Amino acid sequence: MRVRLEQPRDMLVREGTSLLLYPDELIQLSSIGTAIVELTAEAISVKDLASALERRFGRPEGGSTKAATRSVVDQLIERGVLEVVDS
Asked: What H or E segment, with its residue span, contains residue 34?
């Protein structure tokens, strides 16, 4: 699966966190969410996204990077921050 940022109307990034303004919602993201937003400016596979996040933040405790990334990606898709561009 490849995903890409659903462009917000406005975005504020400060100290590694971000606020994204969408028509019906203001969404606050942690440093990992902010990194995902940066990395998905262009379409990217979840596998490549997980690798980039692991390089930046290290491996998650007690689980796989790909599974953790997929979980966050699914939440961001549900919130309208990311869109699936192909399977």
From this structure: helix 31-39
Report the pLDDT value the prediction gives residue 87, as an integer from 0 to 100. Answer: 57
**Per-residue CA distances from 26 to 11, 12, 20, 22, 42 (Å):** 9, 11, 6, 6, 22
Count CA within 13 A, CB hemisphere, residue 32: 19
Q: How many residues does the chain have?
A: 87
Helices and strands in the chain: count of H runs, count of E runs:
3, 6
| pTM score of the predicted model | 0.90
pLDDT of res. 54 = 96
Using DSSP, state whether 41 is helix, strand or coil. Answer: coil
Tokens 């995903």 appear where? 3
The Cα 46–Cα 73 span in angstroms is 8
